[in-house]
Amino acid sequence: METSVIKKLNGKIEVLSDLEALSRRAASIFVTTSKKSIETKKRFAVAISGGSTPRRLYWLLGSEAYRHQVDWQHVHFFWADERCVPKDDEASNFRTAFDTFLSKIALPDKNIHRIKGEEAPDKAARDYEEEIRRFFGESERPGFDLIILGVGEDGHTASLFPGSKSLEETVRFAIPVYLGDPQKNRVTLTLPVLNNADQILFLVAGPSKASGLSEILGDGERKEDLPAGLIRPAHGKITWLIDQEAAGKLGKLRSH
Ligand code: 6PG
Hints:
Blueprint: E1 4-8, E2 11-16, H1 19-41, E3 44-48, H2 55-61, H3 64-67, E4 75-79, E5 81-83, H4 93-100, H5 121-136, E6 146-149, E7 174-177, E8 186-189, H6 191-194, E9 199-204, H7 210-217, E10 237-243, H8 251-254
Helix pairs in contact: 1-2
Bound molecules: 6-phosphogluconic acid (6PG).
């Protein structure tokens, strides 16, 4: 399995041969990080994303090979974002996680802190923020132990889209994102929360991501317009797991 590592400011980029290799690497990072966090904090608070790229990771976490390696009693699941649909809807990020692994692991129901996509977007966002405050403490800006993110072809991450006002939010932890069609509306964690994580793990695969990624990881001026380029954890670490195809335009970055 060919892996090349590029050191970056407070983080690194690992280029892996394909989605399977990337997913297995992500699963081992999940297991290791969960052990460290539970040892030191007696809990592992992780926020996960939707989309297609993390699905293989989720299958692996629910599989015989991995599900016994994590002390699920101390793991708490949150979401980086959710679609405003009922939890059993095909498009629901909760449903994706439930079908792929949450239904296969010994996780107490009280450890699932989902975004209620069936609610009105603003109410869902406020309820979610209350849930986060209950878990992390009223006054605290939440410090997730790990946040798993993806990148859209347009450079969006979670449900923070290029040019959207949601990128300017500095107070709320979670906000609604209105995308015209109510079925398409979302609720997302905000930049201050994402950038307060101890560890960010980006999973990016496929040729359609190569152009955006070269902008986000390069030093081009467009970097600031692409939300994934604004993920810079203040005190945390960021790891980019990228497959060969998505790394196709990282050219000079890889020549270091
Ligand atoms: C979502 C995600 C979103 C996703 C990107 C990449 O709810 O869709 O949270 O931010 O990570 O759109 O999606 P793919 O992995 O499908 O390319």
